[in-house]
Amino acid sequence: MSVNKYSKHITQDDTQPAAQAMLHAIGLTDDDLRKPLVGIASTGYEGNPCNMHLNDLATLIKEGVRDTDSVGLIFNTIGVSDGISMGTQGMRYSLVSRDVIADSIETFMQAMCYDALVTVVGCDKNMPGALMAQLRLNRPSILVYGGTIAAGHYQGRKLDVVSAFEAWGQKVAGAIDEQEYRAVIHCACPGEGACGGMYTANTMAAAIEALGMALPFNSSTPAAGEAKRQECLRVGRALRYLLDNDIRPCDIVTRKAVENAFRLAIILGGSTNAVLHFLAITRAAGIPFSIDELAALSESTPMLADMKPSGKYVMEDVHHIGGVPAVMKYMLENGLLHGDCMTVTGKTVAENLAAVPGLTAGQQIIRPLENPIKATGHIRILYGNIASEGAVAKITGKEGLSFTGRAKVYEGEFLANEGIAKGEVTAGTVVVIRYEGPKGGPGMPEMLKPTSAIMGAGLGKQVALITDGRFSGGSHGFVVGHISPEAQEGGNIALIEDGDIITIDAVKNTIDVHLSEEELQARRAKWVQPPLKESARRGVHYKYARTVSSASKGCVTDEF
User: Fold this and answer.
1) In b/e form, how buried is each residue of 318-341, taking b as 16+ CB within 10 angstroms?
2) Rounded alpha-carbon distances, angstroms, from residue 524 to 433, 494, 519
């Protein structure tokens, strides 16, 4: 079998002398042109800790590829820092970046005729975007996560980036002074690596390892340290095995593998963004998978990990008790994992885990099945007259399992942030933030700033928040997002008024406003669809708002 079946069209074809001349110009020899060409796609850039070290890791991966008689060629694509853009207009480009990343990697690999792909990723949307490209291309591929950040420390407390957001809420509420507020900011992020808690980056990294598309231990090995460097040097050998045996992403990402990945996300208490991304990932893989199937997986899987944002621990702590493979081994031993799924090692999940030590004795991070944090999954898919196509809630049980309160409506996140800062949100309120969906946002921004302000103000158990936008993996409290249809499309969330009574029930999986159908119809008759926001009148938001599907279908931009 040819290991250069794509690159040979430019490297071995006598009618392509210009291509060969240009490859010689970058230093490749005639012998190199007979080898497979491996694209190494880095989302590295200097602007945030999640991505600042990725170009260095890409260079190490290139070394390992070279040692396997292959030619590695590094190229770059974009990333957007959720932590930096959060609470600004920039957050409206975060989810958009997932599809830009997928499109750009697919475009480059197809145009350059490379035979295999390694993606080097850090922040939230990097991972699903890169994986979507790998699945579309279906050439031998490995995903490499740059690793988690070390915990910050201040006055005996472990900190992470969400600590900084919540410190703002504490300052607004008068719980801490300016000096302590600034100290938390300075200490929260000590160096390179993605956000430390079980937020979207670590959720997706762990899930993709369980999916089989990353090497064992990849998701829990910290960014800083020799272990991550050595892992990157090993990638070339693993990729060469995939090339030699023609093992491709769609051989690995099967329905059973997706079940493995999503179950691990539930076990670890992962981000609601996993729902959005796995709907898009399964589409790229050509696997029919609905939001209700993800709901069924959550219903049958317990939440076991006591991890931030609702718990105490960070991914660095998981590394010290055996890493994600030790968690997966516990799952396999208890019938929560399909052991026969293929992985990028060329071995099955069960074969990879056979020699892995179990969880460290006496550890407190992963609860036993007989004493879970929550007996069923924390990710709930809710339906009702507010969300006829579904909504996604993250309910750990620590907030309670149901909430009824009076609506306080905000026409967008920025107005909500101002209202919370002014003290407009009090106990018993359901904050409604609308016109922040995939089209209305546009780009379905995350609501970490308002949820952090609510938690920082000490109202986490007394206030609920619902939105047609998204939530960061760092959000916690009684929150419901992804409400579909969104307000911009005329969903009933657009019809809610201040003072309406709303009930959210995470046992019955319902979300309803206490209004008759007649009242809803009367309000609908008066509703006028607003124009798309100014940013959606040109450029990337113009294209996104006119092609993006609803959140209930994964916000994909290639629906037809």
Assistant:
1) bbebbbbbbbbbbbbeeebbbbeb
2) 18, 9, 9
DSSP state of 86: T
SS (H, E, C) 394-434: ECCCCCCCEEEEEEEEECCHHHHHHHHHCCCCCCCEEEEEC
Residue 553 has pLDDT above 80, yes or no: yes
Q: How far apart are CA 249 and CA 342, in angstroms?
A: 10
Does an H or E element contain 450, and which? helix 448-456
What amino acid positions are annotated as catalytic residues?
472
Is 126's pLDDT higher than 90? Answer: yes
CA atoms of 349 and 339, how far apart (whole Å):
5
| Residues shown for the chain | 560
Q: 375: which 2 tokens?
A: 């007996």
402 close to 340: Cβ distance less than 8 angstroms: no
Please state the pTM of the whole predicted model: 0.95
C-alpha 482/C-alpha 391 separation (Å) is 5
pLDDT band for 456, please (50, 70, 90 cuts).
confident
Determine whether 40 is exposed, middle or buried from the number of CB atoms within 10 Å of its CB (0-12, 13-18, 19+).
Answer: buried
**Coil, helix or strand for 122?**
coil
Nearest to 232 by CA among 148, 158, 309, 142: 142
Structure tokens at 535: 């940013």
Interatomic CA distance for residues 36 and 29, integer angstroms: 13
* Structure tokens given for 371: 């004493």
Closest by CA to 217, choosing from 318, 311, 125, 313, is: 318
